[in-house]
Amino acid sequence: MKNVEDVYRLTPAQRELLMPPSPPAEAPIEHLVAATRGVLDEAALEEALRELVRRHTALRTAFFLQGMPEPMQVVREKLAPSLERAEAPQGLESWLEADRKRGMGLTAAPLVRLSVVRTSAEASFLVFAWHAAALDAGAARLCLEELLRLYQATREKTDAALEKARPFREYLAWMEAQGAGDAETHLKETLKDPRPTLLPTRSDTGTAPGVTGLQQLLLPATESGNVLAFLRKHKLGLGTLLQAAWALMLRHHTGSTEVVFGAQVPGRTAALVQGRPLAGRFAHLRPRRFAIPAQGTPLRWLRALQAELSEAQRHEYVSQAQVRQWLKLPEDAALFQSAVLAWEPPDEDTLKPLARAQGLGAFRHVASPPPCSLTVEAVAGERLALRLHHDANRFAPLDVIRLAGQLSALLDVLVTQPDRELSSLGEVLDAAGGATRSPATAGTSVGPEELRALLAWHPEVRSVDVRVEGSQLVAHVVPTRRRARKLDFGLFFFADEDAGTTDKYRLLLEAAKFGDANGFSSVSTPERHFHEHGGIYPNPSLLAAGIATMTKHISLRAGSVVLPLQSPFRVAEEWSIVDNLSGGRAGISIASGWVPNDFALYPEHFARKRDVMWENLEKVERLWRGESVTARDGAGKDVELKVFPRPIQPRLPTWVTCATDPALFERTGVGGYNVLTSLLGQPLEEALEKIGLYHAAADKVGHARDSRTATLMMHTFVGQDVDDVLDTVRGPLTAYLRAHVALMQTMVKSLDLQVDINEPKWADYLASYAFERYYRSGALIGTVTSCLPMVDKLLSGDVDEVACLIDFGVGTDAVLESLTHLAELKRLVQDESLRMQRVLTEYLAERLPGARPELTVRLTDSLSAEHPVPTR
């Protein structure tokens, strides 16, 4: 045999995969997939692929199952794989399915391939595929990260500086050193009764054998954050939590306090993972037995399980075939009916930023489920994904829907009530869906009953009925609450610098026209002087006058006029001109100012700036009403002056810009003015609390609720994909946060840190941390539906208008494109029926990946008696 570097036998896990008792329907091909952003250097990618294959023996391995005394794996000495290119107008998912069916010839190394897949003229994907006998998902992730580092080095003509990889043969040597006798003894002690725990299954589904169904549940961001925070706090793994939860589920449905199911094991110890890179197939499924304590708390049990699982790692290379042999079971004996898999990124996830730097989106793992009746999969991410793959010939869709709901509820209780008694958790499962067995539509089809059950789980649905009406499926939904108020959306400009462009006002003018055509409430420009940040906005009235001539409906505001820097006569004149040019659409927010340099215009006002603001406001209001105001002329005489032209509006709509001072909020309310605030210097909760003070003060003196507006300025960028959005805004917003000392000081105070934010290393760290915290809790950044929970917070906090700050450093074209998605968010917020249709459609897409029936959503206040309401 030519071109051979090494030959050795298969590992137990490889043998189990390649020579199972029942051969799988298709080859176990897995993928890591990411969207491309921009043009890839395909020659550099191919060169990087070849260097990657040269580094790792596992990537140069072929498998020979016949023609030798025993199955062997052969490492080729030299290989030169090519980058593959594919067109997939039918879509990526169809291409991936076809690629899995295409498979890989076991004797034809390498058992990996790299493809650039174009689904349209605008969209393409980088796909890293591998045969499961060559790599597990963790090793594939390692190889992909090395590939991207090699790609970067090739493009930049530098050295990737990768450590020399270890050959896969080292893993075989480690296994042999463990001693089979010790592993056999450990297995017999821990597994004892090898009978798998069986959930009740159906014999009447009417589905052909081999059909797999999928039910997916994405936990809300808050619940996902609770899970990950709990795991970090108590130093637990996601796999430990999921295995414990599934053991409790099996106890609930079978009545057994000792349960057996399959669990994914790493196949090697933590010590073996450390050191130089080692790629290959290590992880696999094996049966596990769990004895659930009669008493105690979830946290105590989880800690004991974590220690037990860590101790068992040195024996986890043992395959299912070895388990059957040692326990004297038939070769085809089923060791488990259900299995659990958990996927979580390493503590230091370097793949994501590396992919971003190379113009790629976040990679996602795509793989077929293992061959068992029910596989429960948890995937960590911004939203934790729970996926239940099920044999549709044994489990009906409604049963699996209920299992998913129960599992979700149980996970939430385990992490939020870890000191609760284990014996009481059955109540949680009963409340979350009762017994698994209940009437269900047969087979894998999803009809009205299944849709009803799914929709009933949604937090915005109080009750629901799904009916067939003509050729349509219609969901009649009673929402959990009706929103009495609507939230207005305005556009706000504040902090951009001109960056040397000659078209400094393109974003402002184009956005204003878009806002006018799409029902936005206002466009606001600030007053800023003598600094590159915001320096293109020295006079909001001039900009508003320009916008007035190209718009018809949108309000034109100053956000803000710094009244201590202005003559009240000029303010009244200029904004009266804006009011006339716009047909009565002028408005201002006033501020006292705070930057000493700005007061070069009126240095005598700096010491009394707050008092001067109120004094000048009174004069502006009198002039706007047509009254005379006393002033001193050039000859030193007092004269009574009026301003012209006369405005259209009888009263100038006025906001007061309030930063953090509660007294200023209350004075604004007492005066009957509108309020404008922001999250520069205060978290959202504090801002909403102060808006409450404002409303209370206004109510106390008798100002009508509909006569005032509370406006909150928020950084805003809405797109189609969360990862794309974050990649777009991360750099600009992080730089913005770093430049605004007040924001940094607020965060340091909230974290109770003793650091100097002027020190570069702390400034960089805190700015990065602030971005992660700020975009989640203080901005409208994300997709249309991911921003809805933030909108609900604003409405609950008595906010009337969100002023969307869009010019914080993101490119003009990207911001203008994002406005279409922001307009869609505005439409959903202002139309409850449209919102519910969009939210529930996306929810069903999450829960039922792939084909599903179209559904029309209609809101109603109650359901008729003849249509029962499903209970959770």
UniProtKB/TrEMBL annotation:
Transmembrane segments: none annotated. InterPro entries: Biosynth_lucif-like_mOase_dom, CAT-like_dom_sf, Condensation_dom, Luciferase-like_dom, Luciferase-like_sf. Residues 5-428 form the Condensation domain. GO terms for cellular component: cytoplasm. Residues 489-737 form the Luciferase-like domain. GO terms for molecular function: oxidoreductase activity, acting on paired donors, with incorporation or reduction of molecular oxygen; phosphopantetheine binding. One of its GO terms (biological process) is amino acid activation for nonribosomal peptide biosynthetic process. Signal peptide: none annotated. NCBIfam families: seco_metab_LLM (TIGR04020). This is LLM class flavin-dependent oxidoreductase. It comes from Corallococcus sicarius.
